[in-house]
Write a structure and sequence with these properties.
A hairpin with a 2-residue loop joins strand 1 and strand 2 (7-11). The chain contains no helices and 7 strands. It is mainly β. It is globular. Helices cover 0% and strands 61% of the residues.
Length: 71
């Protein structure tokens, strides 16, 4: 869920160790990457312009993909 125009808060369930959150634009270019160590990861997305994006969350068990937009 979008926390505000400057941040993205991702809650991906129970603690599963270290996860990598990457943000890509719709062409697949990676724009941001952040490592989190708990089940809720906050990521500053204030540098991203308006558009459509994909958040990719990868831990040792699975990869989740979420789509979002900045308007």
């Amino acid at each position: 869920s979008l926390n505000n125009q400057y941040g993205l808060t991702l809650n991906y369930g129970s603690t599963r160790g270290i996860a990598i959150i990457s943000i890509q634009d719709i062409s697949g270019e990676e724009l941001l990457e952040h490592k989190v160590t708990d089940s809720i990861g906050d990521l500053d997305i204030s540098s991203l312009p308006k558009g459509f994006y994909v958040a990719r969350i990868q831990d040792s068990f699975e990869i989740e993909v979420l789509k979002f937009s900045i308007q």
